[in-house]
Structure formats: structure tokens, C-alpha cells
Amino acid sequence: MIYQGSLHKMRTELNDPIDYFLTLDDHLIHMNELINKEISITYLNEIHCIRCGRKTSKSFQQGYCFPCFRTAPEADDCILRPEMCRAQEGISRDMEWAKNNCLQDHIVYLAISSGLKVGVTRLSQVPTRWMDQGASFAIKIAQVPNRNMAGLIEVNLKKHFADKTNWRRMLTNKIDLETQLSEQKIKAKDLVKKEYVKYFIEDNEIVDINYPVIEYPEKVNSFSFDKEQKIEGKLMGIKGQYLIFNEGRVLNIRKHNGYKVEIEY
After folding, report:
1. Over the chain, what is the mean pLDDT?
2. Confidence class of residue 26 from pLDDT cuts 50, 70 and 90?
3. Per the domain annotation, does 77 fall within a domain?
4. Are residues 179 and 232 in the same domain?
5. Is 249 left (phi over 0), alpha (psi -120 to 50) or beta?
6. I need a labelling partner for 162 at 20 to 30 A (CA). Which of 5, 41, 121, 220 fits?
7. 143, 106 Cβ separation under 8 angstroms
């Protein structure tokens, strides 16, 4: 089979293991069915903005043309730094968008993808956010009414917990199995500013996430269409938004949002 289209972040469904779906324009490919098979993905030398669709010579912030990068609410500073969100003050690049995205309940969580980390996501994005970052375990710790407050709690907890994933360790499945998330949640509650304690939630469910991987590499080699035009080989698995090929080659699909490709299998 041969399909062409622009890459977009893979869709996920929380099953055991996760189901992954790759969208190429009008085509939806169930990637789990391609694991342990030979596939090739060829870059067709075109990038299209994932927001406006215009052709661009360079992608900004994982998929935007420069004008959208400068003006789109999806590319605002608060996407990466939620504590900078000002939608609660009536300030946003697009207040209608902010009402549906920033001024909604947000979750502050702890997750283990390589080691322990703290993170923030919109309530409606649970558990999608955890799957996208390759978390193996996750627990909700607080629920707040907007993005800014979630970001402030995260900043408070970043003094004590990491906020980044070691993607190489995540992709080689070298994860921390000793840390108990329920214990870390109690610790977080003791460490956070008193004004935030009331937002901590009683739900202590630990979500266990399994990925469709038949063999993890010992070392990983990140592939980029900015340097090479074609990646091919046997698909060994999928974790986070990465396709894992034999010989440790990995392709970050989200990094290549908007890149037009041809996939053959």
C-alpha cells in the first residue's frame, strides 16, 4: 500500500496496548498493524502549516508557518509555559479559543516516562497527554479552573520534581520502577504552597500505560527529514509520538507535523 499526505500527531486510544492511528490527509492508518513489518516513509520536500495550510519553507513550533507562529493562540507562549497564560485576565491572541482551551479545568499530574516528572494538561486531554509523552504510569494530583493556575502549581513543584522527559531513556524503556506515585502525590501536597492545597484531588488511581513495542533498542538514533529524505526498515514499535525502527532508529512524528510524505508498506 502507498499513501501520500501531510503528517500530523498520531491519534491514540487507551487500550492494552495503546492503539495508534496515523492521519495522512484523508487516510487513517492503524499503525499497530504495521509493527514487525517493513515500511518506508519518504519526505516529498513540502511542508504545510498545520493551522492555515500554506506552504512554508520552515516549520515553527512543530508545524506552524511563521505568520501563524506569531499570531495563532495554539502557538502562544503559554502552550509551553502555562504560568504565562493571561486568559483569566481577558488577554489572549484569541479569547474565543482561550475560553475553550485555557479557561477550562486543567490537571496537574505526576508521571513516570523515564523518571518522575510533574506536568500540566487540560482535563479533556487526559489520558492523551500521558500517551503522547510516553508515560508508563501517571496520577492526577490537582484540578484547577484554568491554565494559568495549573502552571503556577507546576512552577511551584518544579523546585522539587523534574518537568522534562529523558526521551532517550523513555525509548529504551529504562524507566523508574521504584518510585511510588501515590507517595509522591502526598509529598507534593506537603511541598506545594498552602493556597494550592485545596485543589488537590482524592482520586489516587494510577494509570498504567502499555505501548505496542516488540523490542526496545539498546541505543536510539533520532531520524530527521531535515537531514535525510527517507527512513525505512522494520517497525519494532511505537511509544509516545515516536516510531521505533530496527537498529535503534526513531522518528518523532510530532516534530514533523505538516511534512508531506509518502508511506509504503
Report:
1. 97
2. confident
3. no
4. no
5. beta
6. 220
7. yes
199 in any annotated domain = yes
Considering the domain architecture, whether residues 183 and 197 belong to the same structural domain is answered as yes
pLDDT tens digits, one per residue of 156-210: 999 999 999 999 999 999 999 999 999 999 999 999 999 999 999 999 999 999 9
Closest C-alpha among 184, 102, 77, 90 to residue 137: 184
For 252, the domain range is 2-69+212-264
* Arithmetic mean of pLDDT, 117-124: 98
What pLDDT digit, counting tens, does each position of 150-159 carry?
999 999 999 9
Give the whole-angstrom CA distance, residue 168 versus residue 244.
12
Q: Of 177, 208, 239, which marks where a domain is finished? A: 208
- Number of structural domains the chain divides into: 2
To the nearest 10 degrees (0 to 180), the angle between helices 147-157 and 181-191 is: 100
Assess whether pLDDT exceeds 90 at residue 135. Answer: yes
Residue 6 lies in a domain: yes
Handedness of CA 172, 11, 132, 108 (dihedral sign): negative
Residue with cell 497564560: 85
CA distance 210 to 121: 20
Give the other-Cβ count within 10 Å of 26's Cβ: 7
Residues 170 and 156 in one domain: yes
Looking at the domain assignment, is residue 84 inside a domain? no
Whole-prediction pTM: 0.95
